[in-house]
Amino acid sequence: MAPVLPLALPLQPRIRLAQGLWLLSWLLALVGALTLLCSGHLLVQLWHLGTFLAPSCPVAALPQVALAASAVALGTGLVGSGASRASLDAAQYPPWRGVLGPLLVAGTAGGGGLLVLALGLALALPGTLDTGLEEGLGTALANYKDTEVPGRCQAKRLLDELQLRHHCCGRHGYKDWFGIQWVSSRYLDPNDQDVVDRIQSNVEGLYLIDGVPFSCCNPHSPRPCLQSQLSDPHAHPLFDPRQPNLNLWAQGCHEVLLGHLQGLSSTLGNMLAVTFLLQTLVLLGLRYLQTALEGLGGVIDGEGEAQGYLFPAGLKDMLKTAWLQGGVARRPAPEEAPPEDEPPKEGLPEA
């Protein structure tokens, strides 16, 4: 019975395989370390922006799984480089013979599974981010005025810092602020007729104005910031409400944050794909090198032509036999026919 996917490895190909594996293993370790950094950076960014994401949005799963997968890839690269280098010396290789087996199992089952899961999460992240930011930013805008409500005291500060740092205004634009009450009722004069008229002008009893918080102002504007009466074309001389970007941040925070986080997740996804490719090559090469050296007693320059393989001889037949036996076991047994009556035995003649 022949092994699965055998490969003949004479002396020179065995040496070149070990040398190439040493280089690939170090490359895998480098890419794994970079992927580890990218995963940590994305996790920190999501932690900082967690206030503006829906609580039910499972976006942290991607960097957490990617951290575990990249750590396994980093360990596989370091161990693989040591094993491939030791295989070139018959005196150094024996201690590594017991390490390669568990490494191949852990790298294939653990590292490969985690990488595939992380890649799937990276592909599904854009839709999850879109929904999470839509809901989270809407809640943040609604809580902006609640500076004295327990649990929401920092909502105003965090949203102002977000708009200033990311150069955005509102959820989808500055007009989002026109539809919510972002000034606390504590700072409104109930005796002011203008305040009373604005509150009574909508069925929800909110104080709505065509203005924005100061954090929406663009400091690069050559004129002082205009925050109120933005819908009135006659309120501010030489100001065109059709071009608010000359005075306010033009983009909404949803668009800005979505592009920022998608860029980070796209970079991480590309790093995970490269890590998966390198880890597959390293594990395949280590398996062929391990099986070839086992046939030579662990000596890479041993006499004769060694043969590397992925699975030992008889594995295919063993799986086939198990499958056939399972099929036979699932096949209904034919009904047993009733036993036929035996013909009566003739009596022996008497002597």
TrEMBL record:
Membrane-spanning ranges: 21-44, 64-83, 103-125
Keywords of the record: Membrane, Sensory transduction, Transmembrane, Transmembrane helix, Vision
PROSITE patterns xrefs: RDS_ROM1
Coiled coil start-end: none
Membrane topology qualifier: Multi-pass membrane protein
GO CC terms, sorted: membrane; photoreceptor inner segment
Compositionally biased tracts (Basic and acidic residues): 342-351
Top-level taxonomic group: Eukaryota
InterPro entries per record: Peripherin/rom-1, Peripherin/rom-1_CS, Peripherin_LEL, Tetraspanin/Peripherin, Tetraspanin_EC2_sf
Keyword Lipid metabolism: no
Family stated for the protein in its record: Belongs to the PRPH2/ROM1 family.
Protein name in the entry: Rod outer segment membrane protein 1
